[in-house]
């Protein structure tokens, strides 16, 4: 396990670059750091909030080709990953802050989830909203995280007390997983599409928690302990053998999952 240090405030999100050599992490102070994951070095730091305003970066995500990085809170910024210039800024058009942005595997759509209990699917070429998925009032405490299934037809969403799996073609909920003991803050599909990693604040919000779920059976396969505060972000490496997690304890951890009984 490796720990990357350099953020001075809470780490809200982490994402692997598609080639597996770099990590992006978003911080409460409005900055985004790009890391060399092998050396543990910070390669560059981006300012993701508007000038003169400090808003925590709740979500970052690499384009599947690695050529862009999306980040944001009340808006999404698209960054050129060669020059690290901001190419464009899009309004989210949600009634509350966007908790999670995720590129579809084919790179043509973005999903956004917010505490207003809605998920929006965006066409990133035409810059239009294609669909809105709504959670029943009182069912899930808002949408705190979203992640596309590797085949691009399903979407997982985290709602503190539960996790939902959506059919994005029909716009319907396919399954609901209990998350009462986790306090879900982040979800991410394993590359093989059969498992979900979920991070949260643990029972009673007393410490960081990570759970691995069988998405087909709806059962929890394993729980990982090591963070001392809420886990805001989890992501599998593209080869499925490692998992990165970012926590309110200011650390980023990389877990070897081959040793787990999954």
Helix-strand topology string = EEEEEEEEEEEEEEEEEEEEEEEE
Query: Alpha-carbon distance between the termini?
Result: 18 Å
Just name the CATH architecture. 7 Propeller
Oligomer classification: single chain
**Overall helicity:** under 10%
Strand order in the sheet with the most strands: 1-24-23-22
Principal-axis shape: globular
How many β-strand runs? 24
Superfamily (CATH H level) name: YVTN repeat-like/Quinoprotein amine dehydrogenase
Count of helical regions: 0
Mean pLDDT: 84
Please summarize the sheet with the most strands.
Answer: 4 strands, antiparallel
Count of spatially separate domains? 1
Rg result? 17 Å
Uncertain parts: none
Highest CATH level, the class: Mainly Beta
Structural descriptors:
4-stranded antiparallel β-sheet, Methylamine Dehydrogenase, Chain H, mainly beta, 52% strand, single chain, 262 residues
If you had to describe this structure to a student in words, what would you say it looks like?
- The protein has a 4-stranded antiparallel beta sheet with strand order 1-24-23-22, with no helix packed on it. A 4-stranded antiparallel beta sheet has the order 2-3-4-5, with no helix packed on it.
- It contains no helices and 24 strands.
- It is globular, with a radius of gyration of 17 Å.
- The protein is mostly beta strands and 262 residues long.
- The model has no long low-confidence stretch (mean pLDDT 84).
- The two termini are 18 Å apart.
- It has one domain (60-256): Methylamine Dehydrogenase, Chain H, CATH 2.130.10.10.
């Amino acid at each position: 396990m490796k720990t990357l240090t350099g953020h001075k405030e809470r780490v809200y999100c982490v994402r692997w670059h598609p080639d597996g050599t770099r990590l992006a992490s978003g911080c409460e102070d409005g900055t985004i750091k790009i890391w060399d994951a092998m050396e543990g070095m910070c390669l560059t730091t981006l300012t993701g909030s508007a000038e003169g305003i400090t808003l925590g970066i709740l979500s970052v995500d690499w384009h599947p080709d690695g050529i862009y990085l999306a980040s944001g809170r009340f808006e999404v910024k698209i960054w050129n990953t060669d020059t690290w210039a901001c190419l464009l800024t899009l309004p989210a058009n949600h009634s509350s802050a966007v908790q999670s942005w995720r590129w579809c595997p084919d790179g043509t759509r973005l999903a956004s989830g917010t505490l207003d209990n809605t998920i929006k699917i965006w066409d990133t070429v035409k810059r239009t909203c294609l669909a809105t998925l709504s959670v029943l009032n009182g069912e899930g405490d808002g949408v705190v995280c979203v992640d596309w299934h590797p085949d691009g037809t399903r979407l997982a969403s985290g709602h503190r007390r539960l996790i939902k799996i959506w059919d994005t073609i029909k716009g319907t909920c396919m399954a609901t997983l209990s998350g009462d003991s986790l306090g879900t803050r982040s979800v991410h599909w394993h590359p093989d599409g059969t498992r979900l990693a979920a991070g949260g604040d643990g029972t009673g919000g007393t410490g960081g928690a990570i759970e691995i779920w069988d998405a087909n059976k709806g059962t929890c396969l394993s729980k990982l302990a090591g963070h001392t505060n809420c886990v805001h972000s989890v992501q599998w490496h593209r080869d499925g053998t490692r998992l990165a997690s970012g926590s309110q304890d200011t650390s980023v951890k990389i877990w070897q999952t081959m040793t787990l009984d999954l």
